[in-house]
TrEMBL record:
<dbReference type="Pfam" id="PF01019">
    <property type="entry name" value="G_glu_transpept"/>
</dbReference>
<dbReference type="InterPro" id="IPR043137">
    <property type="entry name" value="GGT_ssub_C"/>
</dbReference>
<keyword id="KW-0378">Hydrolase</keyword>
<keyword id="KW-0732">Signal</keyword>
<dbReference type="InterPro" id="IPR000101">
    <property type="entry name" value="GGT_peptidase"/>
</dbReference>
<dbReference type="InterPro" id="IPR043138">
    <property type="entry name" value="GGT_lsub"/>
</dbReference>
<dbReference type="GO" id="GO:0103068">
    <property type="term" value="F:leukotriene C4 gamma-glutamyl transferase activity"/>
</dbReference>
<keyword id="KW-0012">Acyltransferase</keyword>
<dbReference type="InterPro" id="IPR052896">
    <property type="entry name" value="GGT-like_enzyme"/>
</dbReference>
<protein>
    <recommendedName>
        <fullName>Glutathione hydrolase proenzyme</fullName>
        <ecNumber>2.3.2.2</ecNumber>
        <ecNumber>3.4.19.13</ecNumber>
    </recommendedName>
</protein>
<comment type="subunit">
    <text>This enzyme consists of two polypeptide chains, which are synthesized in precursor form from a single polypeptide.</text>
</comment>
<keyword id="KW-0808">Transferase</keyword>
<keyword id="KW-0865">Zymogen</keyword>
<keyword id="KW-0317">Glutathione biosynthesis</keyword>
<feature type="signal peptide">
    <location>
        <begin position="1"/>
        <end position="25"/>
    </location>
</feature>
<comment type="similarity">
    <text>Belongs to the gamma-glutamyltransferase family.</text>
</comment>
<dbReference type="InterPro" id="IPR029055">
    <property type="entry name" value="Ntn_hydrolases_N"/>
</dbReference>
Amino acid sequence: MKRLFCKSSLAAFLSTLLTAVSADAYDRVNGEGFASRSQVLATRGMAATSQPLATQVALDILKRGGSAVDAAIAANAAQGLMEPTGNGIGGDLFAIVWSAGEEELYGLNASGRSPKSLPFEYFADNNLDRIPSHGPLPVSVPGAVDGWFELHDRFGRLPMEEVLEPAIDYAQSGFPVTQLVAYYWNRSVPLLEKYPGFRETYMPGGEAPKEGDIFRNPRLAKTLTKIAEGGRDAFYKGDIAREIAAYMEENGGFLSYEDLASHESEWVEPVSTNYRGYDVWELPPNGQGIAALQILNILEGYDLAKMGRTSPEYIHHFVEAKKLAFEDRAKYYADPAFNELPVQELISKEYAAERRQLIDPDKAASRYDAGNVALRHGDTIYLTVADRDGNMVSLIQSNYRGMGSGMTPGELGFILQDRGEMFSLKEGHFNQYQPGKRPFHTIIPAFVTKDGEPWMSFGVMGGATQPQMHAQILINMLDFGLNVQEAGDAPRILHSGSSQPTDEMMRDGGYISLEDGFPMETRRRLVQMGHELRFVSGPYGGYQGIMRDDQGVYHGASESRKDGHAAGY
């Protein structure tokens, strides 16, 4: 009897175990098993950044009575210090702001322009068929500081001295370097240590800091203090501008004092499409935000929920929609001051219906052409903040590739961006390099409204990954029913190899990278459909999001693939 009982108990145990496994039992007691954490809930304020200390800086500013914009600027300044691998005051900035008092969205393009003294012919004369990724040639005017003051002048409450105080304090006293930042910092050293000023600022003791090391940047503290006291002109027309210009001239660069003194940001109208009843907002070019709108418009014609989140059918249609959108991105996205861009035509439902017809449901395309419409690897930070009054800001800021150009002016404590690498050197291209022109930009903030009310502020950093992940986050929520945290934690689809605004053309269909969590059967079927699959580690982007429900509760989410978190009060 005892032996029979044991066998019976074992059989029951195995049956229960197999049932649990087949029902996708996970460590978490509820929600999706791949979720890294619960969404954060709060009512008075919320911040989500990729650096925990920066998130706390934002909350501290909110608790002092600062607006969402004050808190976002404070967090961004702290991240420029703490995460120089992705951003800093040597880079550019874009933002979308929901003003609760006005019940209106505002868009800010704070990207800088190419040097006026650098002619197009210079590159051919020096046997260059593309703009280098590092050094003096890809440096364009850094727009972030002007962006801060434009945002602050319109939406700020606290004085700028108080907003920048936390970053200045951390720069003077130091902070412990986080895991991923240390990894990317050390990866950048072999490329950038040869450029004047880099070692003195970013390699204390002769090497890059490791995880947990205390890093101080007294040079940056002095620069931020000058900005806090003297305003944006201290950066663009004062001693800082003169030091940048002298450094560039000494080191073979073209960025001049006049380029800096004449810089100005631009307030722009966000553009949108409606997806499943929600209005999705992006900024128009020179950024790539409308690619996300194009992808969503194409996919709206399919029943993605019926296909299933991990199915080969969904992945196939997503990738083909991305390929179509990126052909237009390669051809049309550029500085509108130099081109008449068909933005409304590109994001129209009619155009999406035409493009959708090109997708073969059973076979991957090796190439597409850009549509006829009438008239790379980047590192960035994205953050979002919401305050007690319902104001929300979606802000993205970047030095572009890695830590930027490597050009680290004198005693200023920051690196200049290398965004100019994103120009085309093909004569006649919409994105052709020209003096005083803004390059094609990868960094894009996003926002979603529902029936004219704010619903979600979100973004995903990471070069060409960004519009793909903007679309995936919303599909995960609106088609597959995931919450704001699960939507970011869900395994991601990344297609690479599309045509680019820098002249590269897709001829072989590119390739797909899938994170863990997609079944082997799905991968096998995708290969049978003609897709190439590769294993790639790390380029899936960095997400932050804040959703506001109909009770006024903020739901915060942060990227599990990064160092940061969301927090509220």
